Each structure stands twice: as structure tokens, then as C-alpha cells.
Amino acid sequence: MTLTLFKSGINEAVVIHEMQIKAFMPLLNKYQDYETNPANESLERVIDRVNQTYSDYYIIKNDNIPVGAIRIRRKENKVYRVSPIFVLPEHQGNGIAQRVFTIIEDKYNDARIWELDTILQEQGNCYLYEKLGYQKTGQLKQVNDKMTLVSYEKRIIESNQ
Q1: How far is the C-alpha of 10 from the C-alpha of 48, rounded, in Å?
Q2: Paired residues of 11 in beta bridges
Q3: What is the dotted CATH code of the domain comprising 3-155?
Q4: How many CB atoms lie within 10 A of CB 101?
């Protein structure tokens, strides 16, 4: 299994959008969070994000087959935000997301803080992020009566201090 990240541009927006719908639709059906779920986003919204100068979109490829995507948003003071990351349902549970985080942290090795949000009720997601060293910030956002978003961050200790 060869995992690679393909830096995406406007030409990949349709592929990202289609995969995003497929990956997030089970969660949209489960939580009915029509305002926040990426499966409910328009192609135009994905295109806007791909075109943002302060963010990088990557298609996650496994043996050269697209299996998901990740977007990294650069903030101030070497803070980076992951939003979104997703792996297609048929490729989940194979350690892909875990390896993608290793690649991303290596690629953006100037990062001091990584941020992300996930669904509090999705214990598998929370477990993954905590296993990767992310900690809950204590910030919660109630989306509806079924779902709460929880914020995580990972602080990087610089080894040369």
C-alpha cells in the first residue's frame, strides 16, 4: 500500500466534491446537520476553498487511487487547521487517516499548533485524534439535539529549545 498526497487545484475540485459527499453522507443521514455537514456543501464552496491562498487541498491516494482528501488551512503564528479530512467509507479502518496525519505533520514541520473539530458522538474519530496526540480544548458547539462538535488541538514541542 503506497499512500501519497496529491496537491489539488481547481481541476480536482469536482473529484474532491464527489468524494466528500460520499464520505460524509452517512453522517448527514445520522445527525441531519444540514448547515455544517460537508456532504451538503456545494461544488462552488469546494472550489472557493481550493482557490484560497491560505489553504492547501490534497487528494489522498492509495496505490494511485483517490481514497479521500485533506485540507490544511494556514493561520497566524504557525497554527494550522485540518478542515476537512475524510476517507471514503470503503477505505476506512485501514490506518489511512493516521498515516496522512504523519505525512502532513512532516510536510508542515514549522507548525506549533494543529487544530481540528470533530463530532463528539463519533467515538472512533475522537479516539483516532487522541491517539495522534490531539487534546480536547474544552470548546463544544451544540449543532442540534443529536450532535455536538468538539475542538481539538495538538501542540508541537520544538526539540531545539
Answers
A1: 9
A2: none
A3: 3.40.630.30
A4: 22
Nearest to 58 by CA among 111, 89, 112, 19: 19
Is beta strand 3-7 parallel, antiparallel or unpaired with respect to 55-62?
Answer: antiparallel
- 147-157 pLDDT, tens digit per residue, is 999 999 999 98
Q: Cα–Cα distances in Å, from 43 out to 6, 40, 71?
A: 19, 10, 15
**pLDDT of amino acid 157:** 82
**Global pTM?**
0.95
Q: How is the beta sheet containing 147-155 ordered, strand by strand?
A: 3-7, 55-62, 65-74, 79-87, 113-119, 147-155, 135-144
Compute the mean pLDDT over every residue in the chain, rounded to the nearest whole number.
Answer: 96
Cell numbers found for residue 14 = 469536482
CB 140 within 8 A of CB 150: yes
Which of the four pLDDT bands, split at 50, 70 and 90, describes residue 161?
A: very low
